[in-house]
Amino acid sequence: MKRLFILALIALVFVGACGKKQVKRTSEDSKLATEAFAVAETIKEAYLKRDISGIEKNTTKDGFRSVEGVMKSFDSAELVFNPVLVEMEDNTVNLNISWTGKWKKGGNTTEERGMAVFIMSGRPLKVDNILRSNPFKYPE
Questions:
Q1: pLDDT one-digit tens code per residue, 64-77
Q2: Burial of 103 (0-12, 13-18, 19+ CB in 10 A)
Q3: Pairwise CA distance, residues 68 & 52, whole Å
Q4: Is 51 helix (H, G, I), strand (E, B) or coil?
Q5: Coil vs helix vs strand at 99
Q6: Does the predicted TM-score (pTM) go above 0.85?
Q7: 8 A C-beta contact, residue 103 and residue 139
């Protein structure tokens, strides 16, 4: 009898543990952070393709000036973004990105790295400004 009770208890524990998992909804902050990184990646891809209209579409007027205004010519470029921190206040999102890049122009190769803060606002998110080490100003 005692063994039967123990087996029933173990079976009950396993049945309860193997039940359906609850699907957790994605929080609004998580969605906003994902959108912010997607916007930064889109601008990066447009920059690498030299697609000015793609950059303009994802930035405000001031944000466009902070990207297009510092762009230099290059033959080819590689740029890698890694998100570090997302800060959200009121209607503003600050996306901290660690980046590394390699630019080729003529026979010269320039390698740089840095940390940039993409300031975004609006719905959908658009870049307002880039603070600290702007990855779009190279090669110098």
A1: 999 988 999 999 99
A2: buried
A3: 8
A4: coil
A5: strand
A6: no
A7: yes
